[in-house]
Amino acid sequence: MAGDQILLRQYLLGELEEETQHSVEERLFTRPEYLDEMLIAEDELIDSYLSGSLSGREAEDFTRHFLLTPERRLKLRFARSLRKYISTAEDERSPEPVAAAATEIAKRRSWTPAFLQHLRPAGYAPLLLAAALVLLVAYGSWSLILFQQQRQQRAELEAQLIALNPQPVQGAETTPATTQPNVAALVLTQGQVRSGGDLRKVVLDENVRGVQLRFDLPSDDFRSYQAVLQLDGDERLIKIGGLRPRSEGDARVIVLNLPATLLAEGDYRLLLKGAGEAGGATEDVATYRFRVNRKPSP
Amino acid sequence: MSDTWTLTEDTLNQLLDWLDPNRESAGRRYEEIRRRLTQFFVCRGCFEADQLTDHAIDRVAKKVPQVADTYVGDPALYFFGVARKVHLEYLRKQRTTPQLTSPPPLPDLNSEEAEDDYNCFEHCLERLTPDNRRLVLKYYQEDKQVKIDHRRELAVRLGIGMNALRLRVFRIRAELQQCVMDCMENGLGRNGLLDNVIP
């Protein structure tokens, strides 16, 4: 509380010496804003009395001195009604105690901007509820659209992958072309490390439409295989199943064709898993690593 | 205190001329001084502050023809000086009539009167503009430190300083208070009366 406010409070409670009291009253007559300041101090003093925040001596002075006049008793009655109205309004908008505590904790932890927290008073509750419903519906619609978009993208990707990876008929020993135009080829061997000089790289430019990965199998114990591709630092996984090995000379290899658009620049980890009969349980078979560099458009 | 002298139109005009040559400004000045006089007597614990204010003004008005040409300084201070004398006379009179010093009992917070007051309050609150109603209710929400933070945020939102907010709310409260006090004094808070009397 500022010095002037303390002085006014003491004056109103009759706690000042005659000389100081005189100087306060002189200001009342000579300073234009002083009457308003004094009346504000009166309001605040009455509110403090009603909230029980006056000290014992102040409360005594309040009833003994301040409340002597009928004007101030009317003010006290007015302030009592104001206080009752505010507390009734607060009770009406307060949730149950446990929920209130939870709300308080949530509020402390909340990232909600401060201006939203002002929308708590009772008058805003229906508005907030309506807004929440609108947001919920909007979010639901948006999620549905997003889900449909993702499903469509996935279907398109699957179609691309199927088209790019015609699986050999069992027993047929065909070797996919590695010299197709606009397809970059990369031969991977097991366990190639990122930091090593042997890390295989593929450079993609705007003309490259697809990437062909060829990797040899340490052993051919499974009927089909699944490739799980992951870009370092990205949680998303690209899983391509139903891959069947081919023979290239003495080696058994898997050839995987990917659309170039699927590969961003960065280091990749490819985990090869063997699938049991009828696509049953899988088992890790080998890990391959490679790097994709993208050449900027001229 | 003599009650024989009465304020005439001529003396009032002289008084207003002394306060300000412009009659409109003089009227405003007169009202300001009157409010200060009343506040002075209220603060001095006088039960009949309005009557004492009238008496002080009469006393000054009576003196104006003698002092107007020679008095140097703010006339408000002259009123203050007279008010102090009136107060001293009031105290002397109080000592001879001690029954006046017995204050009325404190308002009972749970009385029927409190219910009537609340009816008046609700009624007068509705008469404020929606913006003013919202502001005054928001201003008085919460307690202690939360209240201070709350008011600070309110001031920021309104783009004004804390003191300007305090003053703005004070004026709304004063308007509301006046309405409620009029309602209380006329006993309009009793159930049903408000519906018939105030639109």
Give a verbal description of the structure.
The complex is a heterodimer of chains A (298) and B (199). With 298 residues, chain A is α+β, with helices and mostly antiparallel strands. Chain A has two domains: 3-93, no CATH class; 165-294, Immunoglobulins (Immunoglobulin-like), CATH 2.60.40. Helix content of chain A is 44%, strand content 22%. In chain A, the strands form two sheets. Chain A has a five-stranded mixed β-sheet with strand order 2-9-8-4-5, with no helix packed on it. The longest helix of chain A is centred in the middle third of the chain and has 40 residues, at 125-164. The two termini of chain A are 69 Å apart. Chain B is an all-alpha fold and 199 residues long. Chain B folds into two domains: 9-101; 112-197, no CATH class. Chain B is 72% helix and 0% strand. Chain B contains nine helices and no strands. Chain B has helices at 9-19, 23-43, 49-67, 75-96, 112-127, 130-139, 144-158, 162-185, 193-197. In chain B, helix 3 (49-67) packs across helix 4. The longest helix of chain B is centred in the last third of the chain and has 24 residues, at 162-185. Chain B is globular. Chains A and B meet through helix 2, helix 3 and helix 5 of A and helix 2, helix 4, helix 5, helix 6 and helix 7 of B.
